[in-house]
Amino acid sequence: MPELPETETIARDLDAAIRGRTVVAVKIRKSDVLREVTPRAFGSRLRDARILRAWRRAKLVVTDLDTGDHLVVQPRFTGALLIDDGSLAPAQLRYSTLRLDLDDGRALHYADVRRLGTVALMSSQRFSQYSARLGIEPLDRAFTAGHLSGVLRAVTQPVKRLLMEQRKIAGIGNIYANEALWRARIDPSRAAMSLTLEETALLRDSIVAVLTESIEARGTSFRDYRDASGRPGGFVGKLAAYGRAGLPCHRCGARLVSTHAIDGRSTTLCFRCQV
């Protein structure tokens, strides 16, 4: 967390709010979140840079600058990019690790309670190399059932683990892997290469559908995720599997079960209709 829908929501909010703005000052409170750049270089390279756009790659929020640099944020568990026009409550900015003051009087903060997320500043060449190691975007047109079939046929590991492998498919984490597999009626522990073409097509459609629906609801919030205005996402009430262990399956009524045996993370499934 955040996964693709949450980082997509943040990136869209940022693009609408700060595209074209110029960074006039940089203040760093916790430099341990920085990657690939020293605090001094971070400040000097960002100061007076104009923001061209904000967008998402995998679970990253990327901000392109007119200097050729890319500000690359990976929020992980508790990170948040927040735009403050003076109206955010002090509690929301309590864990701000760095602040970018903009030319219109607002500020962009990266706040992170546990400081497990990262903020990197990369040149265009470095970012291209970094991005090339990531897998296909599941909302791209190229993510077809045929493409997914090729990915699945190459591995014997559980299909759920494969879905979260960022070098294969970018942006899916534990929440949406659980949800997509539930929708597709596929046992998360099945060997990826064992899926039939029909099952693969259904899984591809389930992935695209659940990600799209969550983006429309502005992501899933349990405790920490907030959008760029500090608001929680609204998809949690639509989850059918993740976080519902012990509750009835929405499809067949059987009690959902949870296990950590597949990949060490919480996997919720229905033993009756996910076969």
Task: Explain how this protein is built.
With 275 residues, the protein is of the alpha+beta class. It folds into 2 domains: 4-132, N-terminal domain of MutM-like DNA repair proteins (Alpha-Beta Barrel); 145-269, Helicase, Ruva Protein, domain 3, CATH 1.10.8. The protein is built from 7 helices and 11 strands. It has helices spanning 4-18, 39-46, 124-132, 145-153, 159-163, 174-183, 197-216; strands spanning 23-28, 34-35, 51-57, 60-65, 70-74, 79-84, 96-102, 107-112, 118-122, 257-259, 267-269. A 5-stranded mixed beta sheet has the order 2-9-5-4-3. Helix 1 (4-18) packs across helix 7 and helix 6 (174-183) packs across helix 7. The longest helix is centred in the C-terminal third of the chain and has 20 residues, at 197-216. It is globular. The two termini are 27 Å apart. The model has no long low-confidence stretch (mean pLDDT 94).
Produce a short descriptive summary.
With 275 residues, this protein is α+β, with helices and mostly antiparallel strands. Helices cover 28% and strands 20% of the residues.
Describe the secondary-structure layout.
Elements: H1 4-18, E1 23-28, E2 34-35, H2 39-46, E3 51-57, E4 60-65, E5 70-74, E6 79-84, E7 96-102, E8 107-112, E9 118-122, H3 124-132, H4 145-153, H5 159-163, H6 174-183, H7 197-216, E10 257-259, E11 267-269
Parallel strand pairs: 2-9
Antiparallel strand pairs: 1-7, 3-4, 4-5, 5-9, 6-8, 7-8, 10-11
Helix pairs in contact: 1-7, 4-7, 6-7
